[in-house]
Amino acid sequence: MSEILQSEDNNVQPNELITQQISVKTPEFERKSAGFWIRFWAYFSDILILSSIGMLLIKPIFRLFSLEINDPTWYAPFTLITSFLFYAYFVLMTKFFNQTVGKMIFGILVISKNNDKLTWSTILFREWIGRLISVIPLNIPYLVVAFTPKNQAIHDLIADTIVVHEAVYGKNEKGAYKHTSVSKELQEQNIF
User: Which member of 77, 115, 149, 153 has the greatest number of CB atoms within 10 A?
Assistant: First the structure.
C-alpha cells in the first residue's frame, strides 16, 4: 500500500469563506436617440410610400366609380380614406414592428422610455392623438425634436417614447454603480 506523506511545514487550515462587497462604477451603454434629420427623412419616406399607395390604389378606384377626388372639405370620402390609411399605417407598423418602413430604411425604431413593450394605448396616443397634434399646424411641432435632450417630438412626449438607432449605442453619462460580492475560499493544499 502506498502512504501519503505530508510535510510538517505545510499548514492545513479549515475552509474559510471570505466575502467582500465592492462598488464599481461601470458605464452603461444605451441606444442613441435619433436626431431631427434622420427622423425627417424617415417620415418623408413614409409619406412617399403612403402617397404611392394612394395614387396606385385609391385614386383609380375613385375614378372608376366617378367619385370626387378634389373635394376640399375634411369629411370628403377621399380625404377620410387617405387619413384612415395614414393613421392605420403608422399605428399598425409601430405596434407590430416598432418602426415604419421609413424607419426601417434608416435603421431607427420606437421604444418605450422605460424599455417596456409598447402597448396599444401607448401607440394610439403616440400615433393617433400625438401625431394629430403635430400634423395639424403645418407640421411645425415636429421641430421640437431638434431641441429636446432625447430628441423627442410632441407625440413622443405624450406617449413616453423615444426614437432610437437600432445599432448605435452611446455611453450613459450617469453610469451605474454595480455592487458585486467577491468571495474566496481557502482550501487545504493537496500535495501528492
Answer: 153
